[in-house]
Write a structure and sequence with these properties.
- The protein has about 70 residues and is of the alpha+beta class.
- About 30% of the residues lie in helices and about 15% in strands.
- The longest helix is centred in the middle third of the chain and has 9 residues.
Length: about 70
C-alpha cells in the first residue's frame, strides 16, 4: 500500500528549480544545514494539487479563464 492510497487530494508546495542546486551546495559544504534549510523553505512557493481519485476530480468546478 502506498502513502497516497488513503487520500483523494494532496496539496503541497511545488519544489522550484533551485532545490537540487541547494542540496548539492549543502553536500559540497558551501551551505551549513541552517542555510540550506532556509533556502528550501516553501514560503515563496506556490501550492500544487494532486487529484488522486475520481471523487476528488468531481469536486472541480470551472469558474473562468484569463490570459496571462
Amino acid at each position: 500500500m502506498s502513502l497516497t492510497e488513503n487520500y483523494d487530494l494532496i496539496i503541497g508546495p511545488v519544489a522550484n528549480d533551485s532545490t537540487l542546486p541547494v542540496i548539492n551546495d549543502y553536500m559540497d559544504g558551501r551551505y551549513t544545514k541552517e542555510e540550506a534549510v532556509n533556502h528550501l523553505l516553501p514560503q515563496n512557493l506556490k501550492d500544487q494539487f494532486a487529484f488522486l481519485t475520481e471523487k476528488a476530480l468531481k469536486v472541480l468546478k470551472f469558474t473562468g479563464a484569463r490570459e496571462l
